[in-house]
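Annual report, structural modelling task.

Input specification for the NDP complex:
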Amino acid sequence: MKRYRMLINGEWVEAARGAFFPVYDPSTEEVTAEAPDAAAEDADRAVRAARAAFDTGPWPQTTAQERGRILLRLAERVRKGAAMLAEIESRNSGKPIVEAEFDVADVATCFEYYGGLATKVMGHVNPVPDNALSLSLREPVGVAAQIIPWNYPLLMAAWKLAPALAAGCTCVLKPAEQTPLTALELAQWFPEVGLPPGVVNIVTGFGETAGAPLVQHPDVNKVAFTGSAAVGKQIVKMAADTIKRVTLELGGKSPNIFFADADFEAAIDGALFGVFINQGEVCSAGSRILVEHPIYSRFVEAMTEKAKRIKLGPPLERETKMGPLVSREQYERVRSYQEIGKQEAKVASGGGRPAALARGYYVEPTIFYDAPNSARIAQEEIFGPVATVIPFADEKDAIRIANDTPYGLAAAVWSRDIFKAFRMVKALRAGVVWVNHMQPTFVEAPWGGYKQSGFGRELGPWGIEEYLETKQVHINLNEQPIGWY
Ligand code: NDP
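The model returned the following structure:
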């Protein structure tokens, strides 16, 4: 069993109190590693290191070109270590190895993208009258506290670190307590790629004891949070006392909408992929499957037939399509929703744990149908492989049901009628809308939610904006300054 240390000011350290917490393999339920159980004094130590690196360390003198090169070297280093990272990610989170490999490839692409973008941050000349020159300068916001969840551990770390570093910020990253390992593995390469000590600090531990002190710390300028809506609300309240900049990427209950004229076979695959990828532990999971009346029964039947053939098994086996859920807590939560669903709807498939897998936090891919959109399984984020299929009558009805949720992260529409599809795109209140597929993300395109799915955008040029301040510079061109006294 490996005992990890965390990274503060370029040093691998234990928590001040010397405590560690166990890290599990969810496919065996066994402890496979330990990580430091950080508390407020450790969070403070990390913020002070990030503050010093930002204020006086070499980082403020580093040029955008140099920051870009560091990120490009990190991208290459991730590619070289991809097999190791993917294996640890898969073992720790339960996600199938093939999906973990995709994640790690996306991590490298993310560092590469922001490595390129570092030198494309532009100021502006403002069109003021001729007696002045007015400039807008873009400057890093300062120290960023970045708190991430367990479903895409390394990818979420990259989505946070890459734009922040490109902008010139320094960071304290807190991974989820279930999945701290790949962020720590990544950090071992920081000196090799030229990242100075203190620029990125990684604090491992629990939300309330290690995360909250970061959010409350007066020397932190910005909080970037990905996680549940419930914790997101607490983050906003905690950050209010010191008026920190906050961005929130929260959960969802995303509609995946199928019209009768959609390509039927592609639609069935899209419905399954949309909700069962990564065991359904996806913020944008298409967990509400809206199907037009004429194809509804056939759709439920075909989906059920294919869902029964999804291969569950140990995440490191290459043919596995669905691994265990991340933790006992998540397993129990999803199992309880399976029971709630049985009271609220009909079961098409699944609804329990797979009999063949005695150990591990496995649950069956579960499809409920004939549920009203008001059902708990249609309104609450389950964050597991549980789909609720809901019929609709026409376009208007689909829009009404799709938007009837407090969330607004994502949605998808399937139709061969481009006019209908585009009308739906405009009517859906969601930050991301797919047409005739669901889930692919691009580092070049914005990601984030409407309504209670959060605010702010990650990825693309939008991602770096969230780490920049705008400074207006007003240069007087009169020989006499303007004034009355
Ligand atoms: P949580 O909100 O429980 O946790 C997210 C992170 O916040 C963890 O690091 C957690 O630490 C930390 N945290 C918990 N409580 C506090 C606190 N009081 N102060 C500061 N930090 C705290 O979410 P989950 O880990 O359960 O992740 C699942 C959620 O994340 C889902 O709702 C999902 O939709 C959302 N998500 C959203 C994405 C998006 O892009 N919109 C992407 C991925 C996930 P600890 O590990 O100790 O709990």
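The mean pLDDT is 97.
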